[in-house]
Amino acid sequence: MVLSWHRILHASRGSSWLNPAKQKLLHQKELESCDELDGVADGIISNVEGCRKVFAVAALRCKDGVDTGDSCLSDPQINGLMTAAIPLEFAFPLAFGVTGVGPYPVFAGGDVQGIVYGPNDNGLATVYNILADGVIRYFIQQDESSKPDEFNYLAWQRRIQQISTLYDATNPDLDTFKGHGGKLIIVQGTTDMLVAPAMTTAYFNQVSARYGSQTKDFVRYYVEPGFGHGGGAFNLQWDSLSTLGRSRPICEYPAWPKYSGAGDVNRAASFKCVVE
Which end of the chain has fewer CB atoms at under 10 Å, N or C? Predict the structure, then answer.
């Protein structure tokens, strides 16, 4: 993930930076296009695949692509967003068959504030920079005095491949875990801008390909609309001792929660898990 964060970070600085007003504009337009695709306007985009088909960031383009204010996006700003929306394909493979990272849900309600965009256009006060800086300095280059701004991952192929073998949680071989009776629940938020939903889905698909019909015996995968990286419009939690004030059914992938057309929109009973 770090290599993709580094790439997105550098594509989102300077003239590509989105100030808070432009971030709000993007999110509002995403909701206008996609919120009701699940049957109810509740500030949560549940039908992510449907959203990809109807939302077009080009509709927000300023005249001639030149920044004219907070009511539109310039060409550099749109290009910066597209860097997150298009997967990074590596020039060399990582461990366990990983050949790229992304896309990120930047056009499906992705949580960009403080993660992609900081309070100014230098990108330093962002989660991407804080996390990537340390990994590049200490894990990859192993040099405290190195300059992550100048980092080119192509020059560090051997070390990156070594690290991916040691640390990547992408090995679909769960034989030992399964043999000991382990049960695994994987939960992924649709608005997570740190762990790309596509990557978690790809991993689950690898596990499913390995274990076939046995997969459900010990692995379940749930994708939660509106949930980010520990927060978001729908801050997912489960508690057996109390009732959540706002609830949704947790739908096993590839299903997603669709409003049934009647009932309290804040109650899980008013939704059903569908695959469309």
Answer: C
User: What is the pairing mode between strands 184-189 and 219-224?
Assistant: parallel
Residues 132, 20: one domain? yes
Q: Are residues 44 and 162 in the same domain?
A: yes
Residue 99 is inside which H or E element, if any? none
Q: How many CB atoms lie within 10 A of CB 139?
A: 14
DSSP state of 259: E
- Please check the confidence at residue 241 and state whether its pLDDT lies above 60: no
Residue 138 CA to residue 125 CA, distance in Å, equals 19
203 shares its domain with 255: yes
Structure tokens belonging to residue 269: 């009973």
- Residues with Cβ < 8 Å from 96, sequence gap 6 or more? 164, 168, 170, 171, 172, 206
d(CA 115, CA 125): 9
CA distance 164 to 116: 24
Quote the tokens at residue 224: 């939660």
Length of the chain in residues, anyone? 276
pTM of this structure: 0.85
